Amino acid sequence: MTVSRRTMLAVSVGLGAATMATPLAASKAAVGRTERWGVFELKFDGPRDGNPFDDVTLSASFSCDGKVIRVPGFYDGDGVYRIRFSPPEMGRWQWTSRSSASAMDGQQGSFNCVAPSAGNHGPVRVAGGYHFAYADGTPFRQIGTTSYSWALQSEALCARTLATLKAAPFNKMRMLVFPNVESVAVNPFVRTGDGPKDWDPTRLDPAYFRRFEDRICKLGALGIEADVILFHPYDEKRGYNDMGRADDERYVRYIVARFGAYRNVWWSMANEYDDVKTKTMADWDHLLQLVQAEDPHDRLRSIHQITVYYDNRKPWITHSSIQNGAAVLDDVRAQLHRSFGLKPVVFDEVCYEGNSTLRWGNLTGEQMVERFWWGLMGGTYVGHSETFDPDRNADHSWLGQGGALTGSSPPRLAFLRKVMEDGPVPGIEPIQTWWNYSIAGKEFEYYLHYFGADRPTRWPVVLPGRKGQPMNAYRLDIIDTWNMTVTPVDGLFQMQRHSDYDFHDPARPTIDLPGRPWLAVRLVKV
Amino acid sequence: MTVSRRTMLAVSVGLGAATMATPLAASKAAVGRTERWGVFELKFDGPRDGNPFDDVTLSASFSCDGKVIRVPGFYDGDGVYRIRFSPPEMGRWQWTSRSSASAMDGQQGSFNCVAPSAGNHGPVRVAGGYHFAYADGTPFRQIGTTSYSWALQSEALCARTLATLKAAPFNKMRMLVFPNVESVAVNPFVRTGDGPKDWDPTRLDPAYFRRFEDRICKLGALGIEADVILFHPYDEKRGYNDMGRADDERYVRYIVARFGAYRNVWWSMANEYDDVKTKTMADWDHLLQLVQAEDPHDRLRSIHQITVYYDNRKPWITHSSIQNGAAVLDDVRAQLHRSFGLKPVVFDEVCYEGNSTLRWGNLTGEQMVERFWWGLMGGTYVGHSETFDPDRNADHSWLGQGGALTGSSPPRLAFLRKVMEDGPVPGIEPIQTWWNYSIAGKEFEYYLHYFGADRPTRWPVVLPGRKGQPMNAYRLDIIDTWNMTVTPVDGLFQMQRHSDYDFHDPARPTIDLPGRPWLAVRLVKV
Lengths: 526, 526
What we know:
Strand content of chain A: 25-35%
Largest sheet of chain A: 8 strands, parallel
Largest interface: A-B, 24 and 24 residues
Radius of gyration of chain A: 25 Å
Structural class of chain A: alpha/beta
Strand order of the largest sheet of chain A: 16-15-14-11-10-20-18-17
Number of helices of chain A: 8
Oligomer: homodimer
Shape of chain A: globular
Distance between the termini of chain A: 53 Å
Helix content of chain A: 10-25%
């Protein structure tokens, strides 16, 4: 299947070009300077007549040192059109606009892309096959959360959510473009009447998306990736997820052109794609290919299922996004997902901490944290959310609308994140899951063993290793993942051959453990 | 990638056509009659000069009631060429030969395809998405074993293996075409000298393959499927697995033309494909596509890995063939493999029962049987083998050469097969693995719960079920999977709502169990 690179936006009259610092670029830089991985924006004044979403095309080619990147533009309402570009390299970028409106065609300009400011590590990419890192090489240790419609709530509630996130360990937020619960912003398309289905799919409402991108940028300012979910099955009343092919394409192109330059954006094509009754697998393949073709910034792309696993080996998928409540109850189950997709795995939905009467929303804090640890041991990543509400209404909880967090898992997830950040780059690898060591890390350098709900009083310090492999000496820490303590064990473990398959220190073959649940052991080469 | 349908075999002179009853067809039927799913064979006398494997093409088109099937032929040595066809439907089949040798081109004939004899259920096909059934609809309950080079041993040892199989529960045998251990038959290609690599890949030795197909037919006579493995990584000395593209194609085409008409043949492209260093993923894809294109009988196709899972969603794969020692240690791990491939799953290698010092060859009988049960609970199928040898040499064991079985698992696998045969058609489905019921069967009709190594003394009889679903009444059996007993529990369980998600019988919410390992419970609707 091929996907056209046609863009639906353009300008008709007079170039009112300007370069704008965006919220992510963070400063009102002088015209002509944009930092690497920041946003360079062109603004055009154009036609208001007809249907600007369908009648005109607009794009610009940006070039620097022989590299040429074509960037689509979008209509922002009131006769204003924009093109947003996030430069991947420093240097002088020249641009030329192309438009179906002759007055806008062939405009030119340039800007300097300068070094990124502190805290700007660039977009997150796949690293080491199964992990993530920012473009500058800094590892990205995914500790995600989900608040589906937080961005669509009142300014006050959004501000409360952001304040919560500022104090929380989460560095990725899953969020829906279309509302799934009671929201303030509910009209992504221009309304044509009073009924829930009275809207015109050919005319997007720029105010809705301007509001949404403000939330993306505010997450970015907190160092949080925005995992933007384009479709979901939860709103048959309004039917935004049930448009036809041409309307889906217009919407997807708009999202990609409008949001894609923000370096903290990830694309999640759908939540529970297999519950959207009006789309086939071929539709999802097509829409993902469309995003891949239309997005010059090549943001991460995934799709999330309820029952039928998407084939994450398809080339337009960058990582597996999985819903499964049982898959992160041990390391082997988690690791298998890597073996199948051969890409990074994020378990974006593993049931939620909460007090819901629904069985997917009443994990204890301990259970929520345990899932993260098993995911880590399988070389994968996990996502949090919670469903606490006085009335046990998940729609009003963090999962639905955001606000405050009341669960007990977040401090422990902050502790976990610190363990991850102190660990190997780019991430923790499972080690010989076939043989049930339940050990992960980086062979001959760093090992974690996690005990889950067991209450061990002793552990044989045995590491996988074969003849000729480095035996090394290790220091050992006992980690209480719930009480958030790290207790070093005195002395070293000097490994020697134990069997054809294992190493241990014959002078101290076991260690004593405190008999509590949620323990882990860490060995680091000295 | 497209695959040519060219065949490399042909005849040059004089048609000595004959129809032959094959061992599978079981009787010396009169010329002109072949039973459905039996083998109709054409024999041609042809040229011995040049290289018959490369210089001539031969095929025949068989037609009946508007259906036309093109069948490739093969060279059988000494100037003899054959075409084998297994008719899928009853009726009068007309055939016409095509050959690059003009004297052989355009020969015609016909035969009657008659009803299958007793015990001929046809080839095994995928059924119900995740299971198998014979072409006549009879479920095929896979209880596989592996004896890699049994077919390449002496006549006496082969006879001993067949006698063992006759008394064993196995209905599928994995077997290599190329030897992996010490064998009597080791020359699939014509030898050109005394060194291990002195052979000519352009000239197959028909005697080697005639011998191999005799073994296929003898398995068929026992009702055992032959899972024929075309390549493997265990014989770098001779290098049969390290030929180039053209030689691989010649070999694959020969195998398919020669063996494909036998209805008990399955194609396994390789054992541990990812350890064959001389072939890439593109090579495997190509060879599987070649088999698909060249095989008019459309036998089952799989490929088996050691580490890197093949993408079993690829359309030329009929079922996942998996090696994993940890994946069948619970039902969820097993079931996940269905979710990834969306096809039947056979765990063809899960470690072996035996006394080997190698960690993959020393399961107890209990552990071997446990893996089969967990696989069943995950809606998948498992394979057995054993590595008992007085000298602890796996090459001399059942796994390597066949012979006798000494392990304790086979009678328990026979018992398991009976449980499967008494169960739902086409097979056991996992039920809500997400929610850790560890229940499988057919919803509202038949349930199994397996306890593995646990020693339960009590079990709450709770079945998943929601408002509006049939609650039904069930009789219950306690199954001791090791001692091979089925103990009915008196009375019925009349289900009622227990929670939003569950049913139970409030009059008898639990049952007592005997506190032994390897128990299961079976509920059957009355």
